[in-house]
Amino acid sequence: GDSVTQTEGLVTLTKGLPVMLNCTYQTTYSPFLFWYVQHLNEAPKLLLKSSTDNKRTEHQGFYATLHKSSSSFHLQKSSVQLSDSALYFCALSDRGSFNKLTFGAGTRLAVCP
Amino acid sequence: EAAVTQSPRNKVAVTGGKVTLSCNQTNNHNNMYWYRQDTGHGLRLIHYSYGAGSTEKGDIPDGYKASRPSQENFSLILELATPSQTSVYFCASGDAQSQDTQYFGPGTRLLVL
Question: Three-state SS across chain A?
């Protein structure tokens, strides 16, 4: 079955530094990848998504590129802010009629002053 | 933006009791989903529905039932609650109209004693 792996459980950074959160996946179908962000005591919200190989997608200063050759969809930002502190989930769609998502375990990003 | 609401927001239940979690969406999305969120596991799909009258098992359906009486409403039912079902539960909706983006409700925090 489909699976998503996020290797870091917690990433702690100082404000202004760059960040990369890792996401790799396994699927037998054409991949459609998502990043969701969840701030403390809030609902997860879509951050960005992509199904196009080797094309960078950006939103709110975050960006990611789907690389089918390495089954990866890493999330990056060039300069993190305090407000970026949150839980980040990578998710994979089964591309079926019901668009079921398989989520990774999540990476908590903590940004310090 | 899509609106998904959940009730109750917090619930304390006793072992062996019946618990019903409710979800309402006003976006006319065909698909609705129930997830539970636990540290280290991300979001795991319990049940989903593709329209009124339909319910399908997700990845972890044991101990849960679901009901979709209308396009707008989707309930999750724990007939005999157990402490292992203590978790945060999220409802979501989405379909091809939303370009496969799922919109999440605010969550229900359930404690089973």
Answer: CCEEECCCCEEEEECCCCEEECCEEECCCCCCEEEEEECCCCCCEEEEEECCECCEEEECCEEEEEECCCCECCEEECCCCHHHCEEEEEEEECCCCCCCEEECCCEEEEEEC
